[in-house]
Amino acid sequence: MKRFRQIYAYNLMCKYLNRDFKGGTSDSNDLLCEVFAQELAEKKRIHSFSLLAPVRKILPSHTKSIKAEQIRSSSFKILVQTFNRKLSAQFFIMPDTSKLLEFTNKFIVEDGTTISLKDHDTDYDHKQLPKAEGEALLQLGIQKLSELQDKLYIHNQYSMLIVIQAMDAAGKDSVVKHVMSGLNPQGVKVHSFKVPTPQELAHDFLWRHCLVLPAKGEICIFNRSHYENVLVTKVHPEYILKENLQDIEKVEDIDQAFWEKRYKQINRFEKTWADNGMIILKFFLHVSKKEQKKRFIERIDDPAKNWKFSYADLKERARWKEYRKAYEEMLNNTSRSHAPWFIIPADDKWFTRLAVAGIIYQYMEKLNLSYPKLNEGQKAILAKAKEELMNENMKESNGVTEN
Ligand code: ATP
Ligand code: MG
Asked: How far apart are CA 393 and CA 403, in angstroms?
């Protein structure tokens, strides 16, 4: 790891020296690279001044190639800062794992409380956590999740269901892409739920979701979910008529009691799943109307993003207030300690990903997962297997080869 860091830091530094730092000769640049790389290999956390110190130390013997003014020059300082910033985003700042555990308490909707979305920020206070540190923390979180996923899979007792709900362009896809990037695809499935098909409508509203729940050891992400049945259908109650339900013939039949029954049905199902070893975590990505507008315009202006935009999204945007009310009611009726909702600020994508990763990490960590412990008999079999394999080597080196 140390060697890897050195090589990586060396290469990265060369790149930046060539591009940004015009002062040095190629010899002096090489020397700087080595000093930086060495320093990085020893350090967990890097500060500009700690990078400058070793360069100063070697100055007397290399004054011909590196001049003191160059080291003090503003271009050099900018270079150090840029380098430092890039590195922090590339795993080199080893962030504090405990920071990953701060998000659950901040964003959970406690069972039995009534929240109002106006009390929840859509952006995040950058002074508390700078972006570079946040990005490094996310990399750490992804690495930790990958280790825990391995254990979850081998442990084979628990499964995990991650539900993601949000208005359009709030960053659902980006959470799925980034947070899950380090996981073994064998144990992760993502399901995106769209407008139900006639076959799906011929069953109860939970049917299509039950079909794809995670098996033991698996992690499953619902990109939109059974909650659409109390969200989009609440804003457009006419959709409920397609379900062909007894007692519901017209929109006027869909009253508050109908929605309360639906929340109860969802809660009952989730309780059963949780009682049978499913860890359920539900994330509402809370984006502002202003940020959504910005992202829609980006989708329209950038040809690479055009496909993401649908004119129909504007119609839903026009009903922002109704959606907000539906979300609030959903959050207040379906957050349970065995299946909590989290309201995640979603105006800064990097923060959204980090908070989601941190919360998933914390819940996985709580499971105290471990690799299976071998009994004495199993250990003896492993020892015997190793001995046989070693004897194979001996035979080969004595010239006894088998075809
Ligand atoms: P993006 O954020 O990238 O637009 P998306 O999740 O919105 O992704 P789309 O294909 O644009 O994907 O939209 C899926 C649509 O399906 C949403 O408008 C959603 O409300 C709708 N939908 C999902 N489940 C249901 C349901 N049970 N009943 C009615 N509509 C549903
Ligand atoms: Mg959409």
From this structure: 14
